[in-house]
Amino acid sequence: MTSNWQNYYTPGTVAAALDILQRHEGRARVIGGGTDLLVESRRGLRRPLEAIVDATRIEGLDSISAEDDYLVIGCGVTHTTIVNDPQILRYGQCLAQSCGVIGGPQVRNTGTLAGNVAHALPAGDGTIGLLALGGEVEVASAAGTRWMPAKDTFEGPGRSIIDRHREILTRLRFKRTAANEGSAFHRVMRPQGLCLPIISMATRLKMDGDIITAAGISMGPVGPVPWFAEPAAEILVGGPASEEQFNTAANVALENISLRTSKYRATAEYRETMIRTYLPIILATAARRAGARS
Ligand SMILES: Cc1cc2nc3c(=O)[nH]c(=O)nc-3n(C[C@H](O)[C@H](O)[C@H](O)COP(=O)(O)OP(=O)(O)OC[C@H]3O[C@@H](n4cnc5c(N)ncnc54)[C@H](O)[C@@H]3O)c2cc1C
Q1: Which domain holds residue 240?
Q2: Residue nearest to atom 9 of ligand 1 (CA)
Q3: Percent of the chain with pLDDT over 90
Q4: What is the mean pLDDT of residues 216-227?
Q5: Do 207 and 166 reside in the same domain of the chain?
Q6: d(CA 171, CA 139)
Q7: Which residue has the higher pLDDT, 38 or 138?
Q8: I want to staple 250 with a disulfide (CB 3.0 to 4.6 A). Which of 145, 189, 200, 279 is the partner?
Q9: Are 210 and 254 found together in one domain?
Q10: Residue with CA nearest ligand 1 atom 1
Q11: Ligand 1 proximal residues by C-beta, below 6 Å
Q12: Top mutation candidate among 5, 29, 31 for ligand 1, by most atoms within 8 Å of CB
């Protein structure tokens, strides 16, 4: 099999990686685990490149660490590492759950959360888990390094404001859930045939007794980009963690999206029913988890 790049680089520092990208002036591309990029290249969906720059070998970016209130995940960290990390399991359950449903073990052993976010697909599971947690990404370019909300990086299906020919998503982070917070994720999939998600959803709730004081909801695919469902989350704040409130949040979410029928996924009606069914369930799970740790 012939590759459609000329050189494969494994830089050990961010500076060296940026230097290679700069030298190739847009004709090189960053790669993580390659579980999306290589598949697309082999299908001829990507134009030939002068160089591939592997971000997974950069020193210090292959681990998960606690920094101030945050858990910080390097761009070389695989889904398998996230799923098994005790801190993520304790402080970011919906992220562990969402990375845990990605592909099979081989894909999870290789694919990274950074690649999932940088690829900007509307149904990226890890991305949806990160969004509910209010996740942020660090982007390094020749101009410097900046943190930004992950939700602001998506421009359209597969389109990110991160220029993957010139910039590197170096780290991801989210604030550790406190003892009175909980999160949850659920994906509805066809049980057989094409492994396309029908709908994936994640939630994070902060509680003061029975009252919700902060909320995050994300879902996809419900449009061109992974959706941070602000209107549905806002309606919950100040109210009780009740079935009625959770059903209202599902209604508000549905009022703000226009679901499509897809022959590969499901009918719009079925997908609507899945949101009405499972969003209240994972909201209740997040509330229960918050209670369990307070
Ligand atoms: C069989 C199979 C099953 C899959 N199942 C699922 C699934 O269930 N759910 C799901 O969400 N995904 C799934 N995927 C897609 C894929 O595995 C994930 O999206 C994975 O997280 C991609 O990460 P990666 O490191 O392999 O990205 P790569 O393929 O290396 O890169 C993906 C994109 O991100 C860019 N990129 C990667 N890393 C960086 C970085 N650090 N900085 C800047 N740009 C970067 C690349 O240029 C490319 O555009 C599946 C893939 C396969 C092959």
Answers
A1: 181-293
A2: 102
A3: 87
A4: 96
A5: no
A6: 7
A7: 138
A8: 279
A9: yes
A10: 103
A11: 29-37, 39, 55, 75, 101-103, 107, 111-112, 114-116, 118-119, 124-126, 162, 164, 168-169
A12: 31
